[in-house]
Design goal:
alpha/beta, Rossmann fold, Dehydroquinate synthase-like, alpha domain, 2 domains, two-stranded antiparallel sheet, 16 helices, 8 strands, about 50% helix, about 10% strand
Length: about 375
């Protein structure tokens, strides 16, 4: 890593990570002991579907540890109105809640984070789908009522515990794991852009060698084990490759992006969530497409790009906007994506300043490369 003269003295290296991480088949049975170490009154936050499927299991483990259990369920996106309703439910409970269990894929985890942040209490995350690396990070997102990204928020610290039951994840729809791989594979390349551009990480400091090593290890693990992990997911039985990919997608990628930073790939979610067809695509699917745009902006050569196309195809990730539901993007579509992408704070984490025209050109080139 290189930094401008004097930067080392001005900007400390900062690394933050979950206090406890537990992964494996049946790990939900350890939820109670995690919660018991943090408080006596737990609130389980999830969307209604996840609550129907997993609240009873969570309650059994938590209550067996002598901790009271309540559930607050919601429908729809993680909006400020949704979180306000969840908070009203939480504040009406007596005794007061002192631990939040955030359960789900993306929405339930983010909603639980928002509630825990507002209440100022401990947080345990319980992912029920491996669709992103949010379970271990400080970051959570608010959307508006039209499912457009509204803001990126941060907890004061990372979750106190992350409980990853791989039996649950292996039983989830395979599309969630595909999206999780798509989200995670960008973290190495965004990290390297941030560090190369001498930009701070999401914690406001320099990247540590540890965070960069984990971001790179995540990418390497996904490329070695990704296809086999998808086979295991389709069988519903976690194996060694599945366990490796889950750790790479949730733990390694989460520490890597938070400790190093994000760049073009994640900036593009600002634009991709603004168009109804592409907004409907999973976050990780959007990121996988946007990573290819980032590679073209990096001026990667043809053999490198061919290797990326081959990997995307092997996993089932998109290589064109058609894979996000937009088969014939208009000039106005590309302009909208580019304009909003350039408004994202992470767009500055690149080796050179980028314009809307740069992004439009890269998207057009990507569309023509097949």
């Amino acid at each position: 890593m290189t930094h401008p003269p004097g930067t080392e003295a001005q900007l400390p290296a900062i690394l933050s990570l979950p206090a406890l991480y537990i992964q494996g088949p049946g790990a939900i049975s350890r939820l109670g002991e995690c919660v018991m170490s943090l408080g006596r009154h737990a609130l389980f936050v999830s969307d209604r579907d996840v609550g129907k499927r997993f609240a009873a299991q969570a309650a059994a483990s938590v209550e067996a540890s002598g901790v009271s259990f309540h559930a607050a369920l919601f429908d729809g996106d993680v909006t400020r109105n949704t979180v306000a309703m969840l908070l009203a439910d939480a504040r009406a409970l007596q005794p007061a809640i002192d631990v939040v269990i955030a359960a789900g894929g993306g929405k339930g985890i983010d909603a639980g984070k928002a509630v825990a942040s507002a209440l100022g209490v401990a947080l345990v995350t319980l992912p029920t789908a491996a669709s992103n690396d949010g379970p271990g990070s400080r970051v959570f997102l608010f959307y508006d009522e039209q499912h457009r990204l509204e803001s990126v928020e941060r907890l004061p610290r990372n979750p106190d515990a992350v409980v990853v039951d791989t039996s649950i994840l292996a039983a989830a729809p395979v599309s969630f794991l595909i999206a999780g791989i798509g989200d995670a594979i960008a973290k190495r390349w965004e990290a390297e852009q941030c560090i190369g551009a001498n930009r701070p990480n999401l914690l406001g400091g320099r990247a540590t060698l540890t965070a960069l090593s984990l971001a790179r290890a995540s990418d390497e693990t996904l490329r070695v084990h990704g296809v086999a992990a998808l086979r295991a997911a389709r069988s519903g039985r976690p194996d060694a490759s599945f366990e490796a990919v889950i750790e790479a997608s949730i733990l390694m990628a989460g520490i890597g992006f938070e400790g190093c930073g994000l760049s073009v790939a994640h900036s593009m979610t600002r634009g991709l969530t603004a168009l109804p067809p592409t907004a409907a695509a999973a976050h990780g699917v959007q990121i996988a497409y946007a990573l290819l745009v980032q590679f073209l902006l990096e001026e990667r050569d043809a053999p490198f790009m061919r290797a990326q196309f081959d990997f995307h195809a092997s996993i089932g990730l998109p290589t064109r906007l058609a894979g996000l539901g937009l088969p014939n993007p208009s000039a106005a579509d590309l302009s909208t994506i580019a304009r909003l992408t350039c408004q994202a704070p992470h767009i500055a984490n690149f080796s050179r300043p980028l314009s809307e025209a740069d992004l439009v050109d890269a998207m057009r080139r990507l569309e023509s490369m097949h």
